[in-house]
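Long-time lurker. I teach an intro course on protein structure, and each term I like to show students one example going from raw sequence to a predicted 3D structure in C-alpha cell notation. This year I'd like something fresh instead of my usual example. Would anyone be willing to generate the C-alpha cells for the chain below so I can use it in lecture? Attribution to the forum is fine with me.
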Amino acid sequence: MTAKSVPAPARAGVWARLRAFAGTSVALALLVAVTAALAAAYPRAGDRYADAGLRRAVEQGSPDRTTVRVDAPPPWTDTVEETEEAMRPGALAAARAKVLATPRAPLVPDRAQSAYGVRTTVGVVASETWLPQPAGLPAQLLLAAQQDLASHARLSAGRLPRTTGGEPVTADMGRVEAAVTADTARTLHIRVGSVIHLPRPSRGPLAVRITGIVVPRSPAGAYWSTLPVLRTPALSRIPGSALTEVYWLGALLLAPDAGPVLLGTTGGPHRYWQVAPNVATLRGHDLDGLVSAVTAFASGPGVQRLREVVDPRLETQTNLGEILADHARLRSGIEPLLLLAAVGTGSLAVIVLAMAGGVAADRRRAELALLRARGASLPGLGLRLLAETAVVAVPAGALGLTAALLALPGARTAPAVAAALAVTLLACVALPLRAVVAHRTVRMHDGREDLASARPSRRRTVAELTVLVVASGLVAVLRRQGSGGSGPVAAAPLLTGVVAALLLARLHPLPLRALSRAATRMRGLLIPLSLAQVARAPGFAVLPLLALLSALTTAAFGGSVLAGVTAARDQAALLDVGADGRIESATGALPGALPDRVRRLPGVRDMAEASVTVEAKPRQGSQSVPLAGVDTDAYARLSHRTGLGPFDAATLRRERKDAGAAGGADRPLPALASPRVAEEYGTGPYPVLLQDGTAVTVRIVLVVDRTPAVVGDDFLIVDRAGLPGAAARTTTLLLTGDSLNGRALRSATTAEAGTEAGAGAGAAAVLLRDEERARYVDSPLQTGAERLYGVAVAAGAGYAVLALLLTVLRTAPERGALLARLRTLGMSRAQGRRLLILTALPQAFLASAGGLLTGWACVHLLSPGIDLTTIALASPGVLEEAALRTDPLSLAVPALVVLVLALGVPAGQAWWVGRRGSVRELRMGDD
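-- Reply from a regular --
Happy to contribute to a lecture. Here you go:
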C-alpha cells in the first residue's frame, strides 16, 4: 500500500470503521452524551437555584420592606386650585409613568402591584365613641385615595365609593364616601352606612360615609401590604407613653378621585408612588446589577432625576438593598463550595475522556503503526481519526445538551452550550492527539517499558515537581484564606489527589521489585507468575492511577462536605433543643401527670425532668442567671448521650448529706456552671436568690461549656432534691428517642394542660430536634448546593468506576490471550481465575488504599479553610461555625467499590473465557 492508497477520512471509510467497532462507538457515544449532559446541566441547575434563592429572599422580605416607596408632599403652587389639580388622578398618573420609567434593568417594576395615590401620613382622631377604645384612647384613621381599588378588591357588602354631584372634589368638601376592608370592618365595628366624622382645622368636621366593605384579592401583594394598615388595623402607641396606652389605627379607602379633600385634614397628606419589584423577572446571575439598580433608584441618580421631573421635595425609602445584601452574603458563602465540586468533578470528566481516547489509541496501536509504516502522514492520520470520532461524539454531545435543556428549563442557555461544546470537542480530539503523539515516529515495534524496570524520564520528574509545588501552594492558600478565595484555589482538592497519585506511581515499582525477587525462590506457580505479569506491565498502565485517586479524593471530599452539613444541622438543633425532644413551660410548672403520660408514649426511650428558674440571682442586684434543678441520674445519662457537658451523677450528690433538705449555708449544693458564671461569681459557696424569694447556697464543683436543660452560655445546674418545694416543680421535660411523635406529644401536653387548667399549670411548648433541624434550611441556594454536591459525589464515583473499567478494558485482550495459552499448558479454570485476580490485586489494593489515605489527608489538610456554616445553617444561631470533618463512609465505600470491581472484572473475564468453545478445543479431554 503506497502513500497515495492510504484511505482518507472519507464517508465510506468512516462508516466502515464504525460498523467494525460498533460496541466501542456506542460506549464512546454514551460517555460523551452523559458527560455533556452533566456539563450542560451544572450551570443551568446553578442558575435555577440562584434564581429561586433570590426570589425567595425578596418574597420573604415582605412588600413593606421590598417596595420602593416614593413620597412627595403637596406641591408649592400659587393657588389652591393648582395644588388640588396635582392631587387628581391625571397628574398622579403622569407622575407615575415617570416614576416607573426611572428604574433600570434588572430592576423591573410590577405595574399591577405598584400602587399610587394620595394618603394622609398621620392618623386623624375619630370623634365617634362607638369605635373601639382599648385603653380609653379614641381610634385614629388614615385616609387613602389609592388608584385601581376596583381591580384589586371584590365587594363583600355595599358598593365602592365614588364622588357625587358631578363637580370636582375640592379641599372644602364636607362629605365624602369611603370603603373599608373586611378586617377593618370587623375590628373597628364598622358597617355599611356608618358615618365617621373627622375634625378639620378652620372647617367643620369631614363626614366620611362607608358605602362598602371589600376583600383584597391578593392580601399579601404589594398593593395591600406595602402599607399593611390599609388592609388590617393595628394597635399603636403614642411615643413615650405607657405600654398599655394603645389605640386602634385603621384606614378608610376613598374614591380614587377624592384626593384633594385630604388637603383640608390634619393628616399631612402626601402623594405617593409605590414601585414593587417584579419577582418573576429576578435572576440570580443579575444580583450585582440588581443591587446597583436599586441603589441608583432609591438613593442615586434616579432620585435626582425624579426630583427634577416630579417634585424637588420627593423622597424615597426601601429596605430592598439590605435584603439583597443579606442574600449576597449567603451566596458568597455557598458559591466557593460549589466551585470546589465543579472543578473536581469537571477535571475528572476531562481525565476520563482523555483516558478513553488513550485506550482507543493504544488498542489500535498496531493498526496505526502499520498505516504510518506504509506512508500515512501525521495530519492525514489525525484527520481520519478526528472524522471517525466526530461522527460519534458530535451527535452524542448534541443529545446530552438537548437532554439538559429539556430537563432544566428556565435558565441561561449560553453557559450550557459552551460546556457541552467543550466536552464534545475534547472527546473528538482525545484519540487523534494521543495517536499523533504516539506515532510521530514511524516504527513497527516499541521497546518494552516494564513497570518494574522502567525509569521515569527527566521531563516527567520536572512535571511532577511542578505539580507538587503548585498543589502545595494552593493548599496553603486555601488553609489561610478559606474557600472564598480565587478560582485556582478550588483545584486544591483535585491536585491533592494528583500529588498522591504521582507519589504512589513512583513508589509502586519498589515493592514489586522486592516481591519479584522473593518470588523466584517460591515453589508455587500462581504467585510468581502473577508478580511477573504485574512487573512486565507497560508504564502506561500506571497512568490511570492518577484518574482513579483523583476521583476517589473528590468523592471523599464531597461526601465529607455533605456529612459535615448534616452534622452541623444536627448539632445546631441539639444545642437549640437540648435533647431529641423538649417540653417546657415558660409561665409555670408542667401538669403533674404529664411526665408519666409522656414516658409511656411510643418512641420515648428516656426522660429527664428539670426545674428551670430563669430569674436566679447569685448576688443582690446582679444579672439573672438561669438555674436548673435536675434529677442527677437521668440528667447525667442525658448529658452523656447528647455530649452536652457530660458529668458523673455522683458529682452533684457527693456533698449532700440530707436529700430532703434545701441547701443552706452549712450544706451548699454542688453545682455545674458555665465558664462565664464560674469566672464572674467564683466557685463559692455563695447564696443564689430564687424567683419566689427563697435562696439556696451553691458551690461550683464542675465547669462545662454546654448543658441540655439551658440554652445559652450562662447557667447553674444543681440537684433539684436540694431546692425548696416551689422551685423544685417540673418545668421542663427532656426526651430521648429515635422516633418521637410530635403530634402525640402535643396532644398529651394539651390534654394534661386542660385537665389542670385551674391548678396553675402553665402553657407548654413542644420542641423536636427533627423539626428544628428542618428549620435551618431556609433558602433554595442551600438545598440546591446540597443536591449539586450530591450529584458531584455520584459523578465522581461514576468516573472512578469508568477509569477503572477503561484500565481493565485496555488489558482485557492480553489477559484473554494469556489465559488461553496457559490453558493449553495445563492450567485449570480455577487456577486461571486465581491468576487474573492475583494479577489485578496489587494495583487494585494500591488504588483503594491510596484513595482512602489520600481522601483522609485531603479533608484534614483543607478543613481549616472550609467553612460549612453558610450552606448548613440559614442563620448561625447557637452554632458559630461548621467545620469540615472526615466522613468514614465517604472514604471507605468508594475505595471498597474500586477494590471489588478491580478484582471482580478479571475474575468474570476468566470465568467467561474458560467457557468459550475455543478454549475447550485447546484443552480437549479436560473435565
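Some talking points for your students: The chain has four domains: 1-61+319-446, 65-285+305-318, 452-568+776-927, 573-775. The radius of gyration is 39 Å.
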